[in-house]
Amino acid sequence: MRCLDADTAARCVAGLAERGFAIRHLVRFGLPEYIRISTTDLPTTDRLLTALKETLRDTPRRSTAC
């Protein structure tokens, strides 16, 4: 998934990790705006999408580009 910028990607990874999801930030692969998300089923996907919305809503923005 491509985020707006590297800062937003880092916020997503941190926020989702706090909520129990394993998300990979692809900065080590030269893709700082990207994260990798995998789910196993529809209920998990629904929970992930809810958690992602909460993460983006609840975490302070560190950049004006968000």
Summarize the SSE layout with pairings.
Blueprint: H1 6-18, E1 24-25, E2 35-36, H2 42-58
Antiparallel strand pairs: 1-2
Helix pairs in contact: 1-2
Description of the molecule:
- The structure is a single chain.
- With 66 residues, the chain is mainly alpha-helical.
- 45% of the residues lie in helices and 6% in strands.
- Strands 1-2 form a two-stranded antiparallel ribbon.
- 14% of the residues are buried.
Could you give the order of the helices and strands? HEEH
Biggest sheet character: 2 strands, antiparallel
Strand order of the largest sheet: 1-2
Q: Distance N terminus to C terminus?
A: 15 Å
Query: Helicity range of the residues?
Result: 40-55%
Secondary structure class reads: mainly alpha
Strand-residue proportion: 5-15%
Described by the principal axes of the CA atoms, the overall outline is globular
Q: State mean pLDDT (0 to 100 scale).
A: 86
Summarize the structure.
With 66 residues, the chain is mostly helical.
Which terms summarize this structure?
45% helix; 2 strands; 66 residues; single chain; mainly alpha; two-stranded antiparallel sheet
